[in-house]
Fold this protein.
Amino acid sequence: MSSQFSRTEYQQLKQQLNEHAYHYYVLDEPQIADAQYDQLYQQLLRIEQQHPDWVTQDSPTQRVADQPLAKFTQIKHAQPMLSLGNVFSAEELTDFVQRISKLLEQAGESSNSLSFSAEPKLDGLAVSIRYEHGHLIQAATRGDGSTGEDITANIKTIQSIPLVLRGDTYPDVLEVRGEVVMPRDGFARYNQWALSHDEKVFANPRNAAAGSLRQLDPKKTAQRPLAFYAYSVGVIEPRHEFELHSEVLAWIKSLGLPVNHLNQVVQGEQGCAKFYQSIGDQRATLNFDIDGVVYKVDKLQYQDILGFVTKAPRWATAHKFPAEEATTVVENIDVQVGRTGSITPVARLQAVNVGGVNVTNATLHNEDEIRRKDVRVGDTVFVRRAGDVIPEVVKVVLAKRPADTQPFMMPDHCPVCDSVLLKLEGEAVLRCPAGLSCDAQLKESIKHFASRKGMDIEGLGDKLVEQLVDSGLVNSPADLYHLSEVKVAGLARMAQKSAQNLLFGIEQSKTTTLARFIYSLGIREVGEATALTLANHLKNLTDIMASDQESLQQLPDIGAVVAARITQYFAVPENQQVIAELLAAGINWPAVTEPSAGALLLVDKVVVLTGKLSVFTRADAKKHLQQLGAKVTSSVSAKTDYVLAGENAGSKLTKAQELNIPVVDEAWLQAMLN
Ligand code: IVH
């Protein structure tokens, strides 16, 4: 079959995809929904299948090389990759700024208002990426600063790194330096996956990023959720004249490379100190690990004057955060039962402050990990807050082990329901097989069911779920829909008003979407994306429940393991029963229509309706928004993405304006629907 596409159209499609990737990764302003991007990508693949001779290395389909490497080759950096000096306190920061000011004054420059490029210090792996005539041709690790390893094939698998630079103003040669990191959400997801597939679990996102880049098989690297932020340049040929480092960053961003959005130009020591404080405050909420901030004299002429000491520049320094590791004593070791029955050993610790947070529990991951580290009750251990929320035990201080300790033995019965624990083939974790009849799994399942991405039941927090289960009021997710105000109000510490709010939240949750409903069931391996795929492709619950493994595997991104989990879940009579009860309780969703081009334009966006609408009724506007993937809520907060305002909108509109939330009108919704 000959394609109806010309070569020019193929080139345009390729460029279009690259442009969308730029808007997504670099500007953080996607122009199209992921599903639409996927459609275009599939179209590109089809054309390439018909015209293999058209395919060039810069096609987004060429990111993952077929063949694994035998070993990494060494690459000498054209310009050495430097490290940074450190400061650890306000006093040391003062010294740093004074030293620079003095040196500049000695050179006859005024150092009155010294500007710095202040940047988060990303905790990943430094790499150098070389572009020639706009094409990515080589990438290397930092190594010892002068020689690194050739990781080109792995770097190319990172979606946010352009294979071709944007525009046509790029130099003949450009070396971009930056940090490869594994975002925290991706790290958590990856480790969870690794745990259930008997793959290596990483101790922290930094190790995960390093391990992923050191894979000889790029196919494996491609499966790791890596990100990249550029923070400087190496060789540029021909030379480009810039005045400021911040201009260099803006320029490389315009060429299509991701630059961290937290970077800021600040004035003097005070500006640096304020930045340090502000980034420190945001640290816990960021999606990547940082271990401090970096200050770089912004004016390049000053950088030249200041020069280097051995391997680090005098014009820059890292201001490190206090260490996030501490030692403490293990008072006890418990095991926790997760939503899917996984048994996780947890160390109960003598309270210790780790990086500003009081830590009393730390995960020991699984049986293999606890045995490998040989953590015992009574041991003194290093505890680390590895960026994400759950602290972990890093290692035992053997020298401090008391004489009478015993190795920890995993239980053979579930600590909550007493079922015999099983280790399934191919898994590292022990599991309790009791499902919803185990209270621990019931509680976790209901928390998941009610969560924001699931049925989104407002007013149903974790504590309340535990109370509802413990009191016997709730034995399955469906029981939530049969609660009465009297019963809820009878729970300890439950006021009438909160009981009413909860029942209102439960009632509201009945109208949902098929995808949310599927997600809320908590099927193993079925997250938001898979739930959406199932809903969009199979369109109704009956077909989803009836699909066999083979047909599920035909769907995008559903492999054998996920397909098996889905069919296994629906084959269990108890699960069928819960679903039937939920539907009988009145849970409903609008029919899934053909995904038109714009079908998912508002995926996960939170929209608030206010004022009097004239084109749509409120109910219709809500339904349309939900069909576009949005979540419609009633109050404006920082989490709101859009406020759709009709006539005479009042306080919600004012609040949106205060919070700088985009205010849109009915015409906007019509445009979205078209
Ligand atoms: S600049 C000449 N900027 O910190 C300056 N480095 O100890 C070279 N790092 O190996 C580095 N975030 O991997 C710079 N915004 C940032 C950084 C950063 C993280 C790492 C980098 C380097 C180490 C320096």
